């Protein structure tokens, strides 16, 4: 019988639930399971519970686990009634119907600067506060039934505790709270005035737990830690060094790095989130990332491996072909109703190789803007750590360094949101002042090429201006 302590981390993200079990001392991943979520931008939380249940019943994954924490997709609006029943499907981070509400809230408070001063971010459709305004305006009967609002990771944490008698109250953490639009990482407090402005009244909000606090214990005595947002979890799962910036290519594309102070960005490119350790996590997020590649592959009738090969056979710059990848609208830049644009097509560059390369370059160039926004805000960018499902793409790995103008390292493939949640669980279980020291192993590294790719990035910037006036 192994004498090592096992801890579990859950990644309840947009497309699936992943459960990762780690050695609490070393961080070695010993088990991983997963189960899919339905597609869409609104989902009943019961689907997350069903996926969690399915993943937790695979291969005895949770056998012997002493602590668990949940990392979840950020911002989702889980509206509960007096009996903690879900009032309506949760609007997710990638739902854009509250875009008008976001614009109204921004104007009402006095513009972007007022919101950045208040809660470190500029309202866009992703953020919970805008979804509450939408609910109040478009579904007043549902709005009237709302007693409390929690986030996806809060809800799953509570549901796990409710399996026994360990549930005492709804909880959240600084990281996920900072993505609501009514909690400030600068003051570590809720701004219920902004909640009331959005929703018309104040509703109950989850208690914000400290980074190593426990939310409770299961009937079997397993410690359930605070949990956090998925990007905060990933940051905790990666042992980052000064100068490291993470680019995560899942359903969303995100650029983030732990920082010792809040970044104030009125452009809205960088949101001033909190991390899962008591620090800050400035973050840029795009709505379009991995699924730009799968959509392009599907359109071309090829699999992802073939898309990779074609993209790498294409020249830098795809022969002048550009794909502005706003296939689901876009969050950054704030273009919720945008669609994709294929530009520069000619008879001579109309090749599968150029189209595949344009999909990779277009998706990455949107994230280059996030890396450059961090640079513009004083963040040192010395290397990019690539994670998320599309980090498995050889084309992405090889094309990224030239566009980011930074070397790219790919950590040993793992579900780093789940690893980070497991590290939080181990930290809460230990009661130590610092998180356990888990080493990060690298799978591969990609240097900045000699060929200058700045003209590709500039071309995308010019196209964004031409097509969308940004
Ligand atoms: N080799 C690959 N090349 C490109 N995309 C990939 C590859 N493997 C997985 N993906 C994509 O990664 C995505 C899932 O990544 P993940 O980080 O789990 O997403 P999320 O956390 O948002 O649910 C899917 O859209 C899938 O198509
Ligand atoms: O909205 C954000 C970050 O602000 C997204 O990163 C969501 O948290 C969804 O994450 P993934 O499902 O893409 O991991």
TrEMBL record:
Keywords: ATP-binding, Carbohydrate metabolism, Kinase, Nucleotide-binding, Transferase, Xylose metabolism. Belongs to the FGGY kinase family. Its EC number is 2.7.1.17. Residues 7-234 form the Carbohydrate kinase FGGY N-terminal domain. The record marks 11 as: Important for activity. This is Xylulose kinase. Pfam families: FGGY_C, FGGY_N. It catalyses: D-xylulose + ATP = D-xylulose 5-phosphate + ADP + H(+). Residues 246-429 form the Carbohydrate kinase FGGY C-terminal domain. It comes from the Bacteria. GO terms for molecular function: ATP binding; D-xylulokinase activity. GO terms for biological process: D-xylose metabolic process; xylulose catabolic process. The active site is at residue 230. Catalyzes the phosphorylation of D-xylulose to D-xylulose 5-phosphate. The keyword tRNA processing does not apply. Substrate binds at residues 74-75.
């Amino acid at each position: 019988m192994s004498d090592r302590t096992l801890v579990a981390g859950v990644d309840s993200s947009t497309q699936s639930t992943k459960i990762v079990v780690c050695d609490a001392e070393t961080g070695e991943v010993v088990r991983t399971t997963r189960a899919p979520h339905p597609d869409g931008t609104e989902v009943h939380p019961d689907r997350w519970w069903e996926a969690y249940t399915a993943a937790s019943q695979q291969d005895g994954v949770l056998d012997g686990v002493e602590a668990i924490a949940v990392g979840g997709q950020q911002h989702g609006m889980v509206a509960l009634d007096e009996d903690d029943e879900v009032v309506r499907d949760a609007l997710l981070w990638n739902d854009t119907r509250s875009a008008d509400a976001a614009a109204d809230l921004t104007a009402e408070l006095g513009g972007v600067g007022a919101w950045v001063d208040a809660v470190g971010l500029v309202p866009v459709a992703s953020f919970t506060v805008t979804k509450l305004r939408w609910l109040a305006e478009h579904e007043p009967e549902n709005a009237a039934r709302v007693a409390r609002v929690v986030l996806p990771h809060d809800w799953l944490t509570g549901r796990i505790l409710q399996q026994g008698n360990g549930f005492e109250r709804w909880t959240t953490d600084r990281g996920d709270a900072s993505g609501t639009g009514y909690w400030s990482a600068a003051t570590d407090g809720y701004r219920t005035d902004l909640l009331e402005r959005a929703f018309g009244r104040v509703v109950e909000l989850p208690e914000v737990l400290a980074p190593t606090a426990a939310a409770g214990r299961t009937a079997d005595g397993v410690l359930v830690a605070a949990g956090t947002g998925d990007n905060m979890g990933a940051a905790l799962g990666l042992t980052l060094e000064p100068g490291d910036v993470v680019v995560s290519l899942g359903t969303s594309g995100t650029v983030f790095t732990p920082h010792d102070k809040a970044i104030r960005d009125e452009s809205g490119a960088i949101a001033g989130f909190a991390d899962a350790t008591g620090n800050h996590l400035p973050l840029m997020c795009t709505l379009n990332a991995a699924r730009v590649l799968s959509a392009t592959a599907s359109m071309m009738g090829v699999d992802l491996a073939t898309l990779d090969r074609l993209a790498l056979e294409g020249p830098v710059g795809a022969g002048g072909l550009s794909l502005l990848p706003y296939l689901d609208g876009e969050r950054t830049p704030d273009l919720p109703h945008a669609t994709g644009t294929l530009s520069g097509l000619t008879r001579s560059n109309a090749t599968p190789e150029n189209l595949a390369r344009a999909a990779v370059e277009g998706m990455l160039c949107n994230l280059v803007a996030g890396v450059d926004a961090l640079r513009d805000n004083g963040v040192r960018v010395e290397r990019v750590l690539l994670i998320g499902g599309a980090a498995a793409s050889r084309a992405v790995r090889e094309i990224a360094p030239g566009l980011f103008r930074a070397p790219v390292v790919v950590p040993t493939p793992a579900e780093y949101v789940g690893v980070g949640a497991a590290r939080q669980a181990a930290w809460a279980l230990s009661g130590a002042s610092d998180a356990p020291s888990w080493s990060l192993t690298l799978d591969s590294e990609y240097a900045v090429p000699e060929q200058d790719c700045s003209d590709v990035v500039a071309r995308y910037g010019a196209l964004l201006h031409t097509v969308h006036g940004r």
